[in-house]
Amino acid sequence: MELRQLEYFVAVAEEAGFTRAAARLHVAQPGVSAQIRQLERELGEPLFDRSGRTVRLTAVGEAVLPYARAALAAAGGMRQAVDELTGLLSGHVVMGSVSAPSVLGLPGMLADFHERYPSVEISLVFNDPVTLLDGVLGGRLDLGLLDLGLLGLGAGLPPDVEVQVVVDQPLVAAVRRDNEAPSGTSIAVAGLEGRPLISLPPGTGLRATLEDACARAGFAPHVAFEAGEPLVLGRLAARGLGMAILPESAVAGVESELRVLALTGPPMRARMGLVWRASGPRSPAGRAFVEHARHHLPDLGG
């Protein structure tokens, strides 16, 4: 008994005729008839009643049909499993990010995936949140790491995108220890007015959050220096270039040179999230990569 015989048998049963089945299978009609006769000889019973103008299943044929369909489905599942394994062995995944925050340990996550799937190529690209989100929606990126504080993204992600919040921490103000900033451990947003600030550039969630908070307080922030990496903001503040507005974790490495102040009225937060298409990446390697990243990185809720 061969899968081809079962395929021909199911086609004849569904088309109620040998000629239509042959046309559906793109083979010659005598070949279909020959394979069905061979299957009937192996089973020892006729599968079709050929006495009328329409070919009909016999009682034995009716009983055999579900098993033939199940066998063909199982064979299809085997082929799919092989295709997916082949994809994982030779695929290519692309992750986009606005930055590579050290608090997440992205290099370790990527290294672990490479160790598990050594033949899958990995690309990590950096861009602004809007471009990255468009890349995820368009299938050019398997996964994105976005700054959710960007106005319009925090509460308005498209319905066909899923998100896992991986960073949720307060924004703080940091100045060199000898800076004349107000004494104490905190500064209100209103106290930022007129001060030279150090911030991420426009188009980032941190900058949008800062500008929105200042606008609510009735002024526009005076950003004297910009840098594209949060860790650099703290280093610039440590050189006395101004007051850095940055995520709490970004003062690492220079905290001994800085005075860190909590921001109040209102407090501001830095939120980053993994985003991917709800339907999942198109490739097996991409789907495996998304699951790996979701398991490896924190899940702080939506």
TrEMBL record:
CDD domains in the record, alphabetically?
A: PBP2_LTTR_substrate
Molecular function terms, GO-annotated: DNA binding; DNA-binding transcription factor activity
Query: Which key words are in the record?
Result: DNA-binding, Transcription, Transcription regulation
Ranges where the HTH lysR-type domain occurs? 1-58
Instruction: Please name the SUPFAM superfamilies in this protein's record.
Output: Periplasmic binding protein-like II, Winged helix' DNA-binding domain
Pfam family of the protein (one): HTH_1
GO CC, sorted alphabetically, is: protein-DNA complex
Which family is this protein grouped under? Belongs to the LysR transcriptional regulatory family.
This protein's name: LysR family transcriptional regulator
